[in-house]
């Protein structure tokens, strides 16, 4: 009598679908509040961009983002690559209920970041006039740049508190601190300060917002770590720095990829182009905000799964997350590719000329989404040096692309350069993850992965 294999195949298929659904439900249950807060944060950031564009116009907006890009570089150095270091170490230590190690990691990381941030504040604040005149050819930028340098320390500590809270798996609180608080407080003050003080009013709003966000981060941290005392535990600074310095390289290279276009547009075109391009770029990142929402939930799990040696569970989580992100990011891609001019009308006259750039940037961001959490997987699994080397290569290529295309195509050349760089960099990271860990993050059909027996 022939054996009926159809029933077994149906059972396997049903089991695969059921397992996918259960894992999806698990991710979404952790992502629900995080996703809602990320939507709120993205909406608030969009509101900041609209308000800046409406109140300052293309030139004033360009000067603001020029100052912000400079400050972002300083805060990257101020954080010393400790973002993902704290996330990784706090996640593993808290999972093992090793609160002494959590305390050592927290106090050691915060102390290092505060020292580095204060040094960067002094350098950038003291050199504001030279930077504005000699590098950017905009003497009027100096007061705003000097004022914005006061945000370096509080912003650096805000981001570290956000990552530390993620390590505790307090995802909603982490997102409130790292993504919602600053744009919320900025908008609240900009409506009063910008009409009176113009560019400096926008900068002052940002500085005050970072201070308030830091206070919120401190409140949340104390609330969720009652087992920790206020005394500073002796920390292993060498371990922190050995892990964080390669990640500092990753952060600097990533910032160069996102900011090179801003600096070169200022050099080859003008402040108006900087403002118009940055509005298009920040709008396009709405396509990938879902990536950061889901990563906030799954990144601590990556570290825990890897520490347990559970690569099968790690792959299942990464793959399901990639499918969720692709599904949620697709509507924004369609909106920005089909109706970019209509979207940019929200920012006022002069910004619609970035419609082509917006569509191009959105495509690059969507590739970032569909490739999944590749960077986080490698960094949470101890391969931060591989990530650093890869990102540095593409940061260098991004400079070359921008240097060639901006003089020819202006803001569209900047958009093409950034999108090609982001897309290729993430595709290469997909293959590195597969080669080192045997994990595939692309949202492939069921049954196409090495570990996850769906």
Structural summary, described in words:
The protein has 454 residues and is an all-alpha fold. It is built from 17 helices and no strands. It has helices at 6-79, 82-95, 99-126, 128-135, 142-148, 152-167, 171-197, 199-224, 237-268, 271-284, 289-308, 311-338, 340-344, 355-370, 374-380, 384-409, 411-437. It is globular.
Outline of the structure:
The protein has 454 residues and is mostly helical. 83% of the residues lie in helices and 0% in strands. The chain has one domain (14-437).
Structural class: mainly alpha
How many helical stretches? 17
How many extended strands?
0
**Major sheet size, sense and barrel closure:** none
**What's the rounded overall pLDDT mean?**
81
* Uncertain stretches: 5-21
Report the order of strands and helices: HHHHHHHHHHHHHHHHH
- Could you tell me how far the N terminus lies from the C terminus, measured between alpha carbons in angstroms? 31 Å
Domain count: the total is 1
Shape estimate: globular
Question: What proportion of the residues is helical, as a percent range?
Answer: over 70%
Radius of gyration: 22 Å
What proportion of the residues form beta strands (DSSP E)?
A: under 5%
């Amino acid at each position: 009598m022939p054996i009926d294999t159809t029933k077994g195949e149906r059972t396997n298929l049903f089991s695969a679908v059921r397992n996918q659904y259960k894992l999806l439900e698990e991710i979404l249950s952790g992502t629900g509040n995080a996703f809602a807060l990320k939507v709120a944060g993205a909406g608030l950031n969009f509101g900041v961009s609209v308000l800046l564009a409406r109140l300052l116009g293309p030139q004033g907006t360009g000067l603001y983002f020029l100052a912000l890009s400079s400050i972002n570089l300083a805060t990257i150095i101020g954080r010393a690559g400790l973002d993902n270091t704290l996330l990784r170490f706090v996640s593993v230590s808290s999972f093992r209920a090793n609160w002494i190690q959590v305390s050592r990691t927290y106090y050691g990381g915060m102390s290092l970041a505060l020292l580095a941030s204060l040094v960067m504040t002094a350098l950038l604040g003291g050199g504001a006039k030279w930077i504005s005149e000699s590098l950017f050819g905009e003497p009027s930028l100096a007061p705003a740049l000097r004022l914005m340098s006061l945000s370096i320390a509080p912003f650096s500590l805000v981001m570290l508190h956000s990552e530390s809270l993620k390590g505790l798996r307090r995802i909603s609180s982490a997102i409130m601190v790292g993504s919602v608080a600053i744009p919320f407080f900025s908008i609240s003050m900009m409506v009063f300060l910008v009409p009176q003080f113009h560019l400096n009013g926008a900068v002052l709003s940002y500085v005050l917002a970072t201070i308030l966000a830091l206070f919120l981060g401190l409140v949340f941290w104390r609330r969720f770590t009652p087992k920790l005392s206020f005394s500073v535990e002796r920390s292993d600074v060498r371990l922190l720095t050995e892990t964080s310095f390669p990640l500092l390289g990753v952060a600097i290279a990533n910032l160069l990829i996102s900011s090179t276009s801003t600096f070169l547009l200022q050099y080859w075109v003008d402040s108006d182009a900087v403002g118009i391009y940055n509005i298009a770029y920040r709008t396009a990142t709405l396509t990938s905000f879902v990536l950061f929402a889901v990563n906030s939930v799954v990144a601590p799990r990556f570290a825990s799964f890897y520490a347990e040696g559970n690569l099968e569970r790690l792959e299942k989580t990464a793959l399901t997350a990639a499918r969720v992100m692709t599904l949620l990011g697709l509507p924004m891609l369609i909106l920005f590719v089909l109706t970019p001019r209509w979207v940019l009308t929200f920012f006022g006259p002069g910004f619609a000329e970035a419609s082509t750039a917006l569509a191009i940037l959105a495509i690059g961001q969507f590739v970032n989404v569909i490739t999944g959490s590749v960077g986080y997987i490698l960094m949470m699994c101890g391969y931060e040096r591989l990530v650093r080397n890869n990102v540095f290569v593409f940061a260098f290529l991004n400079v070359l692309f921008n240097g060639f295309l901006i003089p020819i195509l202006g803001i569209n050349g900047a958009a093409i350069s950034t999108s090609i760089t982001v897309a290729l960099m993430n595709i290469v990271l997909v293959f590195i993850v597969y080669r080192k860990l045997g994990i595939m993050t692309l949202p492939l059909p069921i049954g196409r992965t090495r570990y996850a027996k769906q």
